[in-house]
Design brief:
Low-confidence stretches of chain A: none
Largest sheet of chain A: 6 strands, antiparallel
Order of helices and strands of chain B: HEEHEHEHEE
Low-confidence stretches of chain B: 154-165
Number of helices of chain B: 4
Number of strands of chain B: 6
Helix content of chain B: 25-40%
Distance between the termini of chain B: 56 Å
Order of helices and strands of chain A: EEEHEEEEHEHH
Radius of gyration of chain B: 19 Å
Structural class of chain A: alpha+beta
Shape of chain B: globular
Helix content of chain A: 10-25%
Strand order of the largest sheet of chain B: 1-2
Radius of gyration of chain A: 16 Å
Oligomer: heterotetramer
Largest interface: C-D, 71 and 64 residues
Structural class of chain B: alpha+beta
Largest sheet of chain B: 2 strands, antiparallel
Strand content of chain A: 25-35%
Strand content of chain B: 15-25%
Bound molecules: adenosine-5'-triphosphate, magnesium ion
Number of strands of chain A: 8
Number of helices of chain A: 4
Mean pLDDT of chain A: 92
Chain lengths: 165, 165, 165, 165
């Protein structure tokens, strides 16, 4: 199971549809302060089911929808998709690739899709159960949070170990 | 279940000891169950002794030593339960050149099982990337992906996307 | 007393607006009393709009933008009530090259009233120093002060104390 | 009132007596991870009267006394002095220079001295009242804490403004 690509449109500062293809090794992302690098990390957390606006650095979930700037008006929807290869069928689906999509509209309705079919968040969570992919997993370290694993008290440190069990 | 947790705990512990030694170029670390009689509830204590130093409370570690110890723990968990991808957002910010170099070298050992996405301002880390994306805001407030030319030899200013046409 | 606080508040507010514009090279910031009727108890809200962007909650700012906004506030307070010295421990870690350059230049404006002690890993910041101390542990676990030769022209590796005899 | 020098002996990793002279402009401090740079900041906070071990990154105040390493035994006392010029008699004392000293012994007794005369912490705090120098002042920004000023809620932000009043 490999991560093939991430597609964003209308998500935070990514007003234009943007696609990042991921190679099998290391992908580096660089750029000046405030240009949108950490917004990419937020996009991955969001499409995997993040429900806390605060953990996406916003006050409300609608803060993930492009809010306008300069000549551009705010957009009415944010959409993010993650595409995985599934040749070894680690994900319990027939298809060779699996695409998960999340959308949020200005009226606060949201949609989840698996391979362009409507699904529920519960379906996405179950799909990735036990793969190490998920919102609370140890596989995403946000900016400034690397030492948080050590700062936490000894009981909450257990969570990370249990995640790996 | 008890046996599953204690088995995972032992694996992560061993990996953590090894990762710490590799990242620090020496020293010793350990993860200890505070209350071994009660495996399913016990907190986990982290011990870390950088090379040449006495064992002290982890709160006395320096900013860079804490970040590196936390990275050793994350990579240890990764070893015991590989997730398809790992996203690290400027985790190298507190590290000096020697530690950044060791960290960059270690990442390469993980590429067999997982893909890494590294957000960084550090030229040394950029040299590890197989593919490099720049993000800029040519149009104010709107993130745009740009191709980045990376001159490995000089690891020069050219890496900063601003230098890309 | 009321009048003293509101006078200080106004001074800091004006200085903050100016410092922010200088550090970001544009944009607009403000400090606002949440409850102006009750000056002695009111909380203080910070607004920050980096150049080219819409005004949004400060929680949506990037890591570098937050650090720079906080530095603008610290320097504004410094302006309104200069303390003989200021110690900054790796405050430049989240900043990109352009913001580090502007910050380094601004520090120079404060030298009339205050001394600055800057701890940094960043070569650009080192060039601002009138005197540079290196700290190493030639004897394991024991800190020792060493003289550092700094080759301003090359801003080279020589700055790293390890390069000092 | 200028900061002239800082002297440490037996404080944290500074086993040997060490003196840092400060120039009137910018003093830079560089060095690898874990070599003792932030310990210098802790020394300044401590001699100015810091009473919280946690804010000095320790579990107990005795953690500031050199704890031994390699061939060296733990020391029995930590001592730090700060020397200020006082030509303009901003500090209410006759002398042209003012030296404040703090000591802590293994048996947990502590001493404060002003110009080598025994004093109390209260005397030191009163000496620096209204100068912007002090433990809670805005003039020391610890490692990783630069954005803390923005993170805090609007009421605790008031404290910094009041400090400057
Ligand atoms: N809904 C939104 N619409 C438009 N812009 C947004 C939205 N949410 C966040 N932003 C903008 O995104 C920017 C932050 O981007 P991000 O945190 O990704 O920067 P970064 O590249 O990680 O920078 P740094 O190097 O400083 O960490 C902010 O300036 C913010 O205004
Ligand atoms: N009482 C003590 N006795 C001996 N060593 C101590 C004592 N207290 C702290 N230390 C050591 O000081 C070191 C941390 O130093 P410090 O935090 O100043 O590093 P630093 O130079 O700021 O590094 P970084 O660049 O990573 O921030 C730790 O390795 C710790 O073991
Ligand atoms: Mg960021
Ligand atoms: Mg430090």
């Amino acid at each position: 199971m490999k991560l093939l690509s991430l597609e964003l449109a209308g998500f935070k500062s990514f007003a234009e549809p943007t696609e990042f293809k991921f190679d099998s090794g290391v992908t580096g992302i660089v750029g000046p302060n405030g240009c949108g690098k950490s917004n990419i990390v937020d996009a991955v957390k969001w499409v995997l089911g993040e429900m806390s606006a605060k953990s996406l650095r916003g006050d409300a979930m609608l803060d993930v929808i492009f809010n306008g700037s300069g000549g551009r008006k705010p957009m009415s929807m944010a959409e993010v998709s993650l595409v995985f290869s599934n040749e070894n069928h680690r994900l319990p689906l027939e298809s060779e690739q699996v695409k998960i999509t999340r959308r949020l509209y200005r009226d606060a309705t949201s949609e989840y899709l698996v391979n362009n079919q409507t699904a529920r968040l519960k379906d996405i969570r179950e799909l990735f159960l036990d793969t190490g992919v998920g919102v609370d997993a140890y596989s995403v370290i946000e900016q400034g949070r690397v030492a948080a694993l050590l700062d936490s008290d000894s009981l909450s440190r257990r969570d990370v170990f249990e995640e790996a069990a | 279940s008890r046996s599953r947790f204690s088995e995972t705990f032992e694996t992560v512990r061993k990996e953590f000891q090894e990762m710490f030694r590799k990242l620090f170029g020496g020293g010793k670390a350990d993860a200890i169950l505070e209350n071994p009689q009660d495996i399913l509830e016990s907190g986990i204590e982290i011990l870390a002794r950088p090379p040449g130093k006495e064992l002290q409370s982890i709160s006395l570690l320096s900013g860079g030593e804490r970040a590196l110890t936390a990275l050793a723990l994350v990579l240890a968990i990764f070893r015991s339960k590989p997730s398809p991808f790992c996203i690290l957002d400027e985790v190298d910010a507190p590290l000096d050149e020697a530690n950044t170099g060791r960290f960059a070298a270690i990442i390469k050992e993980f590429l067999v099982q997982s893909q890494f996405i590294l957000i960084t301002h550090n030229k040394r880390m950029m040299t590890v990337a197989d593919i490099l994306y720049g993000v800029t805001m040519q149009e104010p407030g709107v993130s745009k992906k740009v191709a980045v030319r990376f001159d490995r030899g000089a690891a020069s200013e050219a890496a900063s996307p601003a230098a890309v046409a």
